[in-house]
Specification:
- The chain is α/β, with parallel strands linked by helices.
- It starts with a helix and ends with a strand.
- Helix 4 (about 90-100) packs parallel to helix 5 (about 120-125).
- The chain has two domains: about 1-150, Cytidine Deaminase, domain 2 (3-Layer(aba) Sandwich), CATH 3.40.140; about 155-345, Dihydrofolate Reductase, subunit A, CATH 3.40.430.10.
- About 40% of the residues are buried.
- The chain is elongated, with a radius of gyration of 23 Å.
- The longest helix has 14 residues, at about 1-15.
- The chain has helices at about 1-15, 50-65, 65-70, 90-100, 120-125, 135-140, 145-150, 180-195, 200-205, 270-280, 295-300; strands at about 30-35, 35-40, 75-80, 105-110, 130, 155-165, 170, 195-200, 225, 245-250, 255, 260-265, 285-290, 310-315, 320-325, 330-335, 340-345.
- The protein binds ligand AOF and zinc ion.
- The site of ligand AOF has 17 residues, from helix 2.
Amino acid sequence: MTDELYMQRCLELASLGMGNVSPNPLVGCVIVSDGKIIGEGYHEKFGEAHAEVNAIKSVTEKYGDQAAALLANATAYVSLEPCAHFGKTPPCADLLVKHRLKRVVIGNKDPFEGVDGKGIEKLKNAGIEVVSGVLEAECSKLNRRFFTRIRKQRPYIILKWATTANGYFAPENSVQEWISGPMAKTLVHKWRTEEDAILIGKRTAIVDNPKLNARAWEGKNPLRILIDRNLQVPQGNHIYNGLAKTVIFNEHKTEVHNNIHYIQMEDMQYYLPQKIAFQLYLMDIQSVIIEGGANILHQFIDGNLWDEARVFTASKIWRAGVRAPQINGYIADQFTLNNDKVTIFLNNHS
Ligand code: AOF
Ligand code: ZN
């Protein structure tokens, strides 16, 4: 039970790295001695110190000369298996061995090929007691983007749309019509700060002319991705304003200027979601939120290439329109936001 409590704290710490560590995992670490937390840390930024390094550092800074003796009798809780490889930093497993920790409690094993059990092996070989799988489901959920990218060689894919109470999600004519309330917009901007990329199709770029940034929430803007086979979206539209890095998948050219990265693809009418997903994997994109339109959403749904769908259902009723997509998933969460109902579906496959 106590192990679970400390692991819960690791998860809280880990989540503070959200939006800043991709394509690395979110990792938190707590060091406990004699029933007391003596140090904490998390992976704060991609390319910088791992969680264990920051946690150990917090102990040495706080306890000075006493730190060595305290650590030698302590338990380290880490939400992910300590790494065993020399990456941008030396192996965390070696660090824990060097400080002679007594016990290490782990949430998830790390499937990354440089680690993949080797971290646990190093600790055990040094005589450290290792327990793994504590709050495993919660840890897996927090790092679902990281695990999906490593295991499936594609980003974690989130679909998002809004529908009227009677199932319409866009008018039939080409005008933009707002369905959900103002709070929905704020939440969507928060969501955008949490993902690496945001993706839309040609029609949405033309009809809605969205800015695709996170201006209503503090945090980073995601990479913008537009799918525009024949480059039909006018250059004057917001997506071409160069204010955030933007990728345009098209069939005509590969070139870069003004923060706009054109990437040429062949035969975009075939296996488009699969091709895009693999390209994004190669670009180190760990997660993408797809915000429309109907055509793009349907292609990813038909290809069963999605992990999560976030749907706003407003109370208004329309007499006609384009029908919202149907998905085969289970409801993981549901809440209301002003007059909108928000439903989070998870795909059964994942
Ligand atoms: C840990 N603790 O806090 C993190 C780990 O390029 P590097 O050196 O930053 O290594 C990245 C890999 O290390 C990453 O793919 C994952 O396997 C592991 N991340 N490991 O022990 C941490 N962030
Ligand atoms: Zn590490």
